[in-house]
Amino acid sequence: MEITLAMRILRTALLLLLAATAPAFAQPEPIKVKVFIASMFEIGENTGDRAGEFQYWFDDYWKDATPIEVRGATHPVFCNDDGVCGAVLGMGKVASSSSMMAILLNPAFDFSQSYYLLTGVAGTPPSRGTIGSVFWGSWLIDYDLGHRWAEGEVPAGDPLFMPRKGYEDVRLFQLNPALTARAFAISRDVPLADSDSAQTYRQRYPDAVAKGAPVVGTGTHMTGDTFFHGPGLSAEAQYIADLYQADDYVITEMEAAALAQVIGRLHGTDRIMSLRGAVNFDQGNPDESTLAHLDPKPGETAGGFDETLQNIHAVGAVVVTDIVTNWNQWQSGVPAQ
């Protein structure tokens, strides 16, 4: 009896000793994200078929990466060994921003020093851009946060939009001017792809900018779930940009201002870059109705879609490479030019 009791005591002591000295179950270290690349949609697979917004990024950075599922996000996140991560977030303000918040809050990632590259295709006014051009966003404006009324319900020539009070902090974001300027300086001379179909389509417009070759530029990105078209609403977008004392409106898209709000809540907006390529004009040519422009006849589309995707990737990738290669300079903030 005494031997049995002694053995039990000894066994208990050994178990307690093992528990005290055994290493705790190791939790994996979160991935330190240097650059997060956000795209809004992919047409089919991530690689090997017709490219959407994500495919050129995927082929460049994540072909061998293991997908990381994130609860609440529409698509998995991919990361490489250099700290470049990315995902498809979904189209529109709600889908994209909810995916972004789920990713930001996931403990698998460390976003404490991350830069964000928000990318995708977009529209442009023919007076300021053309098919294939790529624009860095200097300001992000939410097109939808305000009051609107029909023409004819106010005196002729009066504006049809008024800002709604209470949204001052979320309807307008000036992105870090130093970061925008640095990204533009790094990428302004990147050669851009073009297509015969886009060149032909541009000649339908009288504007010199619309007829010209694609370029890299900067300006205001207008975010709206309303997929607006026509010279009237294009003029309204510029009116809103002027009203908020932002730069000229150059891009119409559907996600950036919402994503800026989400990222800003957790990490601020100083490291956000918005990069969009124009695949359509925001209005028809002077001889074309808005409906005809929205629903073109076969053979009358703008062309240049894939070339614009290539341009977005080419322009953005040189900035991503600069950040990752010179991380010791970028880690604490945008390096001086």
TrEMBL record:
InterPro entries: Nucleoside_phosphorylase_sf, Pur_nuclsid_perm. Pfam families: NUP (PF06516). Residues 1-26 form the signal peptide. Keywords: Signal. Gene3D superfamilies: Nucleoside phosphorylase domain (3.40.50.1580). It comes from the Bacteria. GO terms for biological process: nucleoside metabolic process; transmembrane transport. GO terms for molecular function: catalytic activity. This is Purine nucleoside permease. The lineage of its organism: Bacteria, Pseudomonadati, Pseudomonadota, Alphaproteobacteria, Rhodobacterales.
